[in-house]
Amino acid sequence: MYILSVGLNIRPFRYFYHNASMPMKLFLFTVGFLYLQLNVLMAKEKQKLTADIIITNGTIYTVDAKWHVYEAMAIKDGKILALGSDKKILTKYKSSKKINADKKFVYPGFIDAHCHFSAYGLDKYKCELSGTRSYAEVVSKVVAYDKTNTLSWVYGRGWDQNKWPVKEFPAKDTLDELFPDKPVILQRIDGHALLCNQKALDMANITRKTKIKGGTIEKDKDGNLTGILIDNAMDPAERLINTLPPNQANGYLMEAEKECYAAGLTGVVDCGVSKRIITILKRLYQNDTLSIGNYVLVSDDTDALNAYASAGRRQYGQMQIVGIKMYADGALGSRGACLKEDYTDRPGERGLLLAPKEHYDSMARTALQYDLQLCTHAIGDSANELMLKLYMPYLGGKNDKRWRIEHAQIVDPADQHYFKDYSVVPSVQPTHATSDAPWAETRLGRKRMKGAYAYNDLLKQAGYIALGTDFPVEDISPIATYFTAVYRTNKPKGIPFQPENALKKKDAIRGMTLWAAKSVFMDTKKGSLEPGKDADIVILDKDLMKAPQEQILKTKVIYTIMTGQIKYKR
């Protein structure tokens, strides 16, 4: 009756209504009703708050303290406005841009807590040797690469002798025959060893008598150079390589960012970055050419420290200087990791430390002085013990400085308590465990394996753990990080490697999101989907929490959103 009276108070409507037939009256009544409803809806729409993006019809894992799961989310000015049911969000918010998640699965954007983002980009001109199955294949790839190579040198990276039928280091003889007048430098997958031809050794002034502290120059049984240089011994050869022009460097870094977004990454901890590269990154971030969150650990060389560490924490767009990266030892694959006892497969050798203790103390004092995190590469049990004990007087017990041990690959169970006692963050790479599984025990022996790749044990001590990939050493995929952390294998139905140290599903996701953010003091802004936090989001086609094991590695990224901006759409 109310609707009828509203209509009758409108003079034209009242006239036609009184003179109309009964069917016409019904029609006019219906028109009046719809008119009123439209006005009510329009009034309600005007009262709604405007969002830049609304995501609906999803399963949104917030990774907040209570692990809330919602259907919908509203985003404005790069921040999360609200989360809730579809009805709740659509009742309160409006937007010209809506994303129907189509029952897909929404997570905080993934953060790689230890990688080499800038090196990954700037290595793209090099001869790619990852996945080679023999030294013969390496040589074949190098020869093919050089047919179109316009540089005066050949630089390749990614070989791993542990994946070859003959698992010993290769020798330079074939390279000497094929490239007598051009330097050839081939970097091992872990970045801790080089294979150089004689031309490169000559240009680097490396002879049979050369000795380099913190490095190894390999020789054969007759004392002849094999071309293998390990850790600090690599430096003279590396200095032969000219730097890329800035315009080329810019393009490669932009390409690397696109690959990160396609993988679902919205943040990276870029480890051990030099002054020159930080300067390039700084410019690209200041003019918004790059946008991915980049938490830079400055290289521990004098130039980088003087230029950037001495300024303390600084932010340039989405890039921040957060800490110092230093190296205690080398890698297990090249037997540079510093062990308490001899290598099982090479008696008499225990690896090596890359610098004197005075250097490490100096870095600790610098980190304290400028309020930076100290983040130390430590692989072997001796290196881990040394660094954990070195941290002690500077940290003084429980603290919130968030100093980190990078890799924490082999930690004597007797030393693991230092992570808890001194609030040290274990920053680990689950794919290292599965990559090394076929040969790690050969290097270490069964007894030491108890403290190797012991991620769940470290989590229990530290209370949280940061997960990364170390790309380009391992694949860039955070899905592979999750899978290997949870299932301890790199195959859909593989046999788990030391399954007692697998992480729970929620903990693996936290390690790639909230805990990764916490490991660089970003957890108040990023790492979980909560009102007020940055809208860094990834949408996947599979549910990491519920999908069968054999389906996880097939997971595809549908969207990657960085501070409310769509950066990747499948």
Can you walk me through this structure?
By secondary structure, this protein is of the alpha/beta class. 35% of the residues lie in helices and 22% in strands. The chain contains 22 helices and 27 strands. Strands 10, 17, 18, 19, 20, 21, 22, 23 and 24 form a nine-stranded mixed sheet that branches. A six-stranded mixed sheet has the order 4-3-9-25-26-27, covered by helices on one side. A six-stranded mixed sheet has the order 11-12-13-14-16-15. The chain is elongated.
Helix and strand layout, with pairings?
Blueprint: H1 2-8, H2 11-19, H3 22-47, E1 49-50, E2 53-56, E3 59-61, E4 69-70, E5 72-76, E6 79-84, H4 86-92, E7 93-94, E8 98-100, E9 105-108, E10 110-115, H5 117-122, E11 127-128, H6 135-146, E12 154-159, H7 173-178, E13 184-188, E14 193-196, H8 198-203, E15 215-219, E16 225-231, H9 235-238, H10 246-262, E17 265-273, H11 275-286, E18 293-299, H12 302-307, E19 314-316, E20 319-327, H13 357-369, E21 373-378, H14 381-395, E22 404-407, H15 417-421, E23 425-428, H16 430-436, H17 440-444, H18 455-462, E24 466-467, H19 478-487, H20 505-512, H21 514-518, E25 537-540, H22 549-552, E26 557-562, E27 565-569
Parallel strand pairs: 1-7, 2-8, 3-9, 10-17, 11-12, 12-13, 17-18, 18-20, 20-21, 21-22, 22-23, 23-24
Antiparallel strand pairs: 2-5, 3-4, 5-6, 9-25, 13-14, 14-16, 15-16, 19-20, 25-26, 26-27
Helix pairs in contact: 1-3, 2-3, 13-14, 16-19, 19-20
